[in-house]
């Protein structure tokens, strides 16, 4: 199924954090001959994770992309960070992949950590395989992990191989269930074909029958053969596997040890044989059929090189000098980790980096007439924020330019100016993501940044009514200032906001000045005496006085504000705090802990339920004061194997 004319193919490696994706990436590149020595993440010698941030944390903080040749086929493998806080990076890579390899630990109790990615793949019908990694670990069980994963996958999983173990239970190799061949594994050695161990015969037969039955569920001809006890030909089995994967009807399961280089070649051969072509993928995505077309799936700023747009070419040939969506293409380069090789042009399926495409944003579909649109996942809503400041006010301009670049390269991070608290907020998916972003910001700008927990915008209101007179009068040289008002001030129900009225009779306050009275009242309420806005108040102008020469809008505004300031202490003011309605999602086994997080933060539980479309997950809904929300997502993740998420929206104000 390796038809070169169909173009270069793309596989994305995704999965929970630390499951071994970058180690697998390294081994794939080594196996394909794209790199000559095999580095290790933990020693800081891997091709991937080369950025200072990734090295310092021995984890992926960004996509690792490598284009290479494998047995005469062009491939790009995109290794994605596993942290849920960086899931948008992975989502963008999965959007342009022909096939996704989900890499996981051989631990059944961690299977739920695959849910966020499985949901994304299942919802979008993206063909995917599973690679159960770290099979060199002592307690690694394919069977138990497989069953736990099946419970959360909406597609049937299909075991393509079974482990061979020695008398002590140690993994020594595997049997391929399609070819019915057995292989011996040794660390860092090419697997060696062996004769089928005798004690494996029954096991192998049972596992193969299960595999064939799963395939037959999707194919009537195969079902007939099985019912009539006809053994299907190997060719027929392969055909079924290819078709079912490409249509995302099954999820083939492989296993191995990326660290030891076992099972890697098997996985690569399956990718080569089974992965759909870019033409098929473009059709699955419903991409418009145009001349030259490419899609940006990642944007970065690389020091002096400036902006780099990583694109997948969907059709035609993209070359230096082309104009796509109004930008002139330059420096078409092929990535091998951080190393870029200028190649001038690239054909269908290829992943390349384009230099300085000023207008291009991640997700953009680039064509010569610049009119096509394509579906693209929205970044997840922010769950965590920090207030940033610079030492010198003058540095803020440099900071905001860097912030714009930051949220362009990671759209799941945003920077906003909070008009109420006056703070500059950096908002994102969690503390880890923002700490990485801060380090990058500091490196980008050379500024030392101060970070604080954002202030909560409190409000005030009143609990008693009063009537207040006030006069503003000034006699200084020429024109004087004069205005006299009497205001009736009353509390209103929570959420009512502000209402202004007037009951002026006999022109005590001429019509033209009434809007100025309202303006003066509003100005006072906007900040109150201590900076907190005053809400849920009604103010009625009931009487007043004016002077034919000295009255003015300004004078009435001042009189109104003075009346409000004098009245406030008599109205028994109280503080109000914002309360958020929060939906916390996590695997069901953690629901009691999640509920305790909410109640521990002065929260009121509204209930919990199964999370729609997420087998094995619950949603807990609670009302939680905004002042208690600060690091809630960090605590949520710490009790939920790192995968809990939340959405939160303002609900109401309550008495503090
Ligand atoms: N025992 C064992 N350890 C492994 C294997 N593969 C990776 N590791 C170790 O697991 C740790 C994480 O490996 P990475 O390759 O960085 O994992 P990752 O999935 O890329 O991690 P993130 O990108 O941060 O999500 C490292 O210490 C690896 O040495 C394996 O097959 N067996
Ligand atoms: Mg990694």
How would you describe this structure to a colleague?
The chain is an alpha+beta fold. A hairpin with a 2-residue loop joins β17 and β18. The N and C termini lie far apart (67 Å). The strands form nine sheets. The protein has a seven-stranded mixed sheet with strand order 2-3-1-4-5-11-6, with helices on both faces. Strands 26, 31, 32, 33 and 34 form a five-stranded antiparallel sheet that branches. The chain has a four-stranded antiparallel sheet with strand order 7-8-9-10, with no helix packed on it. It has four domains: 8-283, P-loop containing nucleotide triphosphate hydrolases (Rossmann fold, 3-Layer(aba) Sandwich), CATH 3.40.50.300; 384-452, Alpha-Beta Plaits (2-Layer Sandwich); 463-572, Ribosomal Protein S5, domain 2 (2-Layer Sandwich), CATH 3.30.230.10; 577-655, Alpha-Beta Plaits (2-Layer Sandwich). Magnesium ion (MG) binds at residues 21-22, 49, 60, 79, 81.
Task: Report a brief summary of the structure.
With 656 residues, the protein is of the alpha+beta class. The chain has 16 helices and 34 strands.
Low-confidence spans: pLDDT under 50, at least 5 residues? none
For the record, the count of structural domains works out to: 4
Order of strands across the main sheet? 2-3-1-4-5-11-6
Q: What's the CATH H-level homologous superfamily of the largest domain?
A: P-loop containing nucleotide triphosphate hydrolases
The helix fraction, in percent, is 25-40%
CATH topology of the largest domain: Rossmann fold
The 3D shape can be described as elongated
Strand content: 25-35%
So how many helices? 16
List all distinct small molecules, including ions and cofactors, that are bound in this structure.
guanosine-5'-triphosphate, magnesium ion
Class based on secondary structure composition and strand pairing: alpha+beta
> Do you know the CATH architecture of the largest domain?
3-Layer(aba) Sandwich
């Amino acid at each position: 199924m390796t038809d070169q004319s169909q173009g270069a193919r793309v596989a994305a490696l995704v999965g929970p954090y630390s499951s071994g994706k970058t180690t697998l990436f390294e081994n794939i590149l080594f196996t394909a001959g794209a790199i000559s020595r095999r580095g290790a993440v933990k020693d800081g010698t891997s091709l991937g994770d080369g950025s200072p941030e990734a090295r310092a944390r021995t984890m992926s903080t960004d996509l690792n992309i490598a284009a290479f040749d494998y047995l005469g086929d062009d491939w790009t493998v995109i290794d994605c960070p596993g942290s849920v806080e960086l899931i948008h990076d992975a989502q963008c890579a999965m959007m342009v992949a022909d096939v996704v390899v989900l890499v996981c630990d051989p631990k059944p109790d961690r299977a739920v950590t695959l849910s966020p990615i499985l949901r994304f793949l299942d919802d979008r019908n993206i063909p995917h395989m599973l690679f159960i990694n770290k099979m060199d670990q002592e307690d690694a069980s394919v069977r138990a992990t497989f069953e736990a994963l099946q419970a959360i996958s909406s597609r049937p999983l299909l075991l393509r191989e079974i482990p061979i173990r020695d008398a002590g239970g140690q993994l020594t190799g595997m049997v391929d269930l399609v070819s019915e061949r057995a292989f011996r594994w040794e660390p860092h050695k090419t697997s060696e074909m062996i004769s089928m161990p005798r004690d494996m015969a029954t096991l192998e037969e049972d596992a193969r029958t299960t595999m064939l039955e799963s395939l037959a569920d999707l194919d009537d001809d195969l079902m007939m053969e099985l019912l009539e006890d006809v053994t299907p030909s190997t060719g027929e089995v392969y055909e079924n596997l290819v078709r079912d994967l490409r249509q995302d009807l099954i999820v083939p399961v492989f296993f191995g040890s990326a660290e030891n280089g076992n099972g890697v070649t098997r996985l690569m051969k399956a990718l080569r044989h089974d992965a759909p072509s870019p033409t098929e993928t473009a059709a699955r995505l419903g991409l418009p059929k145009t001349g030259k077309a490419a899609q940006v799936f990642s944007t970065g700023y690389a020091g002096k090189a400036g902006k780099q747009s990583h694109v997948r070419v969907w059709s035609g040939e993209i070359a230096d000098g082309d104009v796509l969506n109004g930008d002139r293409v330059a420096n078409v380069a092929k990535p091998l980790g951080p190393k870029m090789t200028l190649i001038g042009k690239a054909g269908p399926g290829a992943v390349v980096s384009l230099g300085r495409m000023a207008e291009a944003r991640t997700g953009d579909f680039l064509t010569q007439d610049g009119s096509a649109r394509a579906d693209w996942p929205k970044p997840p809503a922010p769950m965590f924020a920090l207030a940033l400041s610079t030492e010198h006010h003058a540095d803020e301009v440099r900071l905001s330019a860097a912030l714009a670049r930051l949220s362009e390269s990671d759209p799941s991070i945003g920077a906003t100016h909070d008009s109420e608290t006056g703070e500059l907020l950096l908002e994102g998916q969690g503390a880890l993501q923002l700490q990485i972003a801060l380090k990058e910001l500091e490196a980008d700008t050379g500024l030392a940044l101060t970070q604080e927990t954002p202030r909560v915008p409190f409000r005030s209101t009143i609990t008693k009514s009063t009537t207040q007179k006030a006069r503003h009068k000034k006699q200084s040289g020429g024109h004087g200032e004069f205005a006299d008002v009497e205001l009736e001030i009353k509390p209103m129900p929570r959420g009512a906001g502000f209402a202004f009225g007037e009951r002026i009779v006999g022109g005590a306050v001429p019509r033209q000045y009434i809007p100025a009275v309202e303006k003066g009242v509003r100005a006072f309420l906007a900040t109150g005496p201590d900076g907190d806005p005053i809400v849920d108040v009604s103010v009625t102008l009931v009487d007043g006085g004016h002077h034919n020469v000295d009255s003015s809008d300004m004078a009435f505004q001042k009189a109104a504000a003075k009346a409000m300031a004098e009245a406030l202490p008599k109205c028994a003011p109280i503080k109000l705090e914002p309360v958020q309605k929060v939906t916390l999602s996590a695997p069901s086994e953690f629901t009691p802990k999640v509920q305790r997080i909410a109640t521990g933060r002065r929260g009121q539980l509204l209930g919990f339920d199964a999370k729609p479309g997420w087998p094995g997950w619950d949603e807990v809904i609670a009302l939680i004061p905004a002042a208690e929300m600060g690091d809630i997502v960090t605590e949520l993740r710490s009790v939920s194997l790192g995968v809990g998420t939340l959405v939160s929206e303002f609900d109401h104000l309550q008495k503090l």
